[in-house]
Amino acid sequence: MGLSNQEILLFNTALTTFEGTKEVQVISSTKQISFPEHPEAVIVEADYVEVRENVLFETPAGNEYIEEPGYYLLRIQLPVKLPGLSYQVVSFHSTKQELPSMEQKPTAQISNDFITVSFENGVLTAETAFGKRIEQFLSFVDEANAGDTYDFSPLVGDTPVKLTFQTAEISTAKGVQKMKLNGSYTLPYDLENRLLTPHKEGVLQLTATLTLKTGDPLLHGELHVKNSLRSHRLRLLVETGIETDHNHASLPFGFIKRTKGVPADWEATYSEMPIDIEPLEQNISVSDEEAVCSVFTKGIKEYQHQGTVLALTLLATTDQLGKPDLVYRPGRASGDTTKRGHILMATEKAQLMGDWNYDFAISFAQGAFSEKNTAQLGKYFAAENVDYLRQDYNYFLHRLDNKIQSTGQQLTVPQTLSVISLPEDILVSACHPSYYKQDQYLIRIENPTGEAIEIPTILQQAEQINALEEIQEAKRNVPAYSALTFRLPL
């Protein structure tokens, strides 16, 4: 394509049109750049890499040792509209003025057309556009984990500790607002010290960055945990403000409705008390007839619905592979030491010391829970930022050219291209080349709702196949809670 070092190749890997903001990475010697076709571009994050001395530079005349110049790693937010399965070249130029960046603000509040989030005296409050006010919106709870690598179990005599943020910093730019929340907490170091007074202590550090964008219904969150404690469970508490006895959790090709809590007559069905800690696939929603709150996650795989709160497990660290007779699981477990020939198996890495990062998003909407709307928001949240910039500062960042061998063949490649674009309400779970037919591709459409959906016009003449790529009798619709796979040339 003959890209210069001021041209970004931006991709939309989805098969539907994307309209919103993308974050691209620009490696530049200066912040004095502009995007003529995107005047609302802003720098949301900037890191400077210092000059390096005596760096080896290989030349035809021999090795030289040079001074490598410093450069900026810039994360830039661009409002874009990209058709399905496409790329577009975005250009920027050097100017005399710096590209607008995030500016610090004294007020501890961020807002857009959907939600307002404020922080005051350690209390995080959310207020929706339709008037729902929620205090203690986000907090944490930390407690001892006397369980093993299979199951969490509480420590008898331990009291869970609720943690709230201590400070907030606000930064804004056109189209984006961020709230950075921090907290540092001194807690008992391990199981033994949970029950001692005085006790050995460790430090748990939490940082959350909440982001609101113009026109975006999601409150985006990035959470960083620095853990130096042993054998404990840390959970993020999302206060929904919705009183209900059930929740809706996503599954592949659908949702499951779960009742919260443990049945009062559980002994009539179970030999031991069930624990309502549930797996979290992609998102979890609670709703009544007036409002719905949905939480979307990446890397958070467990939740519990308690009262009006969704408790999301961040860490559940432990020191042993298997332990017998837990409070939450009586009897023996695989890997315990109550069987002849079984040794005590320490699991030091299961203490999960150090740094851990999580992404999540939260939305509030009026009305009852909608499978279709929730699935669409989940698709939007999962959309990746894929971009490429040809540059010589750092060969390990988003590189394509150092993996492609050049040839003498000259190709004419357009500056923008869309392979296929499906209607925006279509959910695609897979798109890849056929395993059996050259120049053919497979597109799998999923339907996570209780009603059949119409097959898009562009796919109505394509072959409908199964997982073995055997042609099936054509259907006119994608059945409820199901999927169809199509094979066609692109």
TrEMBL record:
Pfam families cross-referenced by the UniProt entry: Glyco_hydro_38C
Signal peptide interval: none
Domain Glycosyl hydrolase family 38 C-terminal, chain residue ranges per copy: 111-317
GO molecular function, one term: alpha-mannosidase activity
GO biological process terms on file: mannose metabolic process; oligosaccharide catabolic process
Matching Gene3D superfamilies: Golgi alpha-mannosidase II, domain 4 (2.70.98.30)
Protein name: Glycosyl hydrolase family 38 C-terminal domain-containing protein
Organism of derivation: Listeria grayi FSL F6-1183
